[in-house]
Amino acid sequence: MEASILPEDELEELRRRRLEQLQRQAGDQRALEEEIERERRQEAQLQMILMQILEPEARERLNTIRLARPEFARAIEQQLVMLAQSGRLRQKITDDQLRELLRQVVPKKREFKIVRK
What we know:
Blueprint: H1 8-53, H2 56-68, H3 70-85, H4 95-105
């Protein structure tokens, strides 16, 4: 028997380990795909709610904000959805109302006055 040839039981053990590894990888891939699909469904649901509660101009403003500050836009969207789900919105939010809400949420900038002597 040559040194490079593995005994049958060692070869079988290597095959079994490799099969387990491939099965784990396939399971991880499925879990990742399911997570991506779940996030896509949540995003679609969020967009549907926003379409129902925002006037087109307000939705456009929010989309513009999303391009510049995605985390901030996400926080505003979540607040709007919570307002809608709690029944505190009686009508669609206009652009002016959204701007006022944004003014309240955005922290005021501190003004600095530099005096040169």
